[in-house]
């Protein structure tokens, strides 16, 4: 049963470039969280590949200094 839960969790992983971009900008998770108005735990989860709400994606994109039209750079579609 635990294996089934693990598989379900893994299937929700979403590829993104949040950590790569944040580190290129020499920004800490806490700083990104503050700029985005989110918790550091949320940033950690998103960087780990967990899915998030569209509003959360929007906040992260803007906090990293991108325009919403450049969302593919941060959250590429598969």
For the structure shown, list the relevant keywords.
78 residues, 59% helix, mainly alpha, 6 helices, globular, 434 Repressor (Amino-terminal Domain), single chain
Detail the topology: elements first, then pairings.
Elements: H1 2-10, H2 18-24, H3 29-36, H4 40-47, H5 54-63, H6 71-74
Describe the structure.
By secondary structure, the protein is an all-alpha fold. Helix content is 59%, strand content 0%. It contains six helices and no strands. The protein has helices spanning 2-10, 18-24, 29-36, 40-47, 54-63, 71-74. The chain is globular and about 30 Å long. 18% of the residues are buried. The mean pLDDT is 89.
- The rounded distance between the terminal residues' Cα atoms is 29 Å
> How does the overall form come out from the CA principal axes?
globular
Structural class: mainly alpha
**What would CATH call the homologous superfamily?**
lambda repressor-like DNA-binding domains
- Figure out the total of helices: 6
CATH class: Mainly Alpha
Q: Gyration radius, to the nearest Å?
A: 13 Å
Strand content: under 5%
Could you give a quick summary of the protein structure above?
It is built from six helices and no strands. By secondary structure, it is mainly alpha-helical.
């Amino acid at each position: 049963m635990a294996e089934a839960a693990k598989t379900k969790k893994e299937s929700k992983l979403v590829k993104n470039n949040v950590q790569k971009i944040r580190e290129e900008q020499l920004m800490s998770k806490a700083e990104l969280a503050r700029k985005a108005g989110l918790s550091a735990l949320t940033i950690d989860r998103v960087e780990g590949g967990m899915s998030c709400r569209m509003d959360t994606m929007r906040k992260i994109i803007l906090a990293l200094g991108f325009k919403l039209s450049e969302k593919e750079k941060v959250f590429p579609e598969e």
